[in-house]
Amino acid sequence: MDILNKSFSLPRITACLAAGLFMVTINSGAQETEKKEKAEKTEKSTQAEKSGKSGKGESDTVTARLSGDKQVPSVETKATGKSTIKVEEDKSVTGKVTVENMDATAAHIHQGGPDKDGPVVIPLKEIAKNTFSVPPNTKMTDDQFAAFKDGNLYINVHSKKYPSGEVRAQMKP
To answer: Which of 79, 91, 108 is nearest to 148 (CA)?
Structure first.
């Protein structure tokens, strides 16, 4: 210890130890912040998936899970589906819908609240078995865009067994 004190002096050693502890503390704090940010991002993503909303900004990308219990009235089915629809601020619409455990005959975007049926506003085009897409160059009217912003559009996939719709999901911007 006497050699250390003569060669390096006690204040210098103390300062080095303090600086080292400070760096460890900062690094640990940065890692904690990074962990929190990652957890918050994961939570937001999970909430978006549950709510059907996955993005905002110049456009709204709505990812939603379709099921029979969201039909009006609800239907008992093993069919499920997923939709990803993007609505731009210029009212252009793109996206697709895919369903499983059913033989889909048609798919549409309808105007109506969560507990109401409504008219077709955008017929979707079948591009493969049980997969439908928004036709190219599709644009909403001002009224349809306002209904979308208010959460009053829904995706509905129909079948022979349930011609009024077997699975449904509300589009929530």
So the answer is: 91
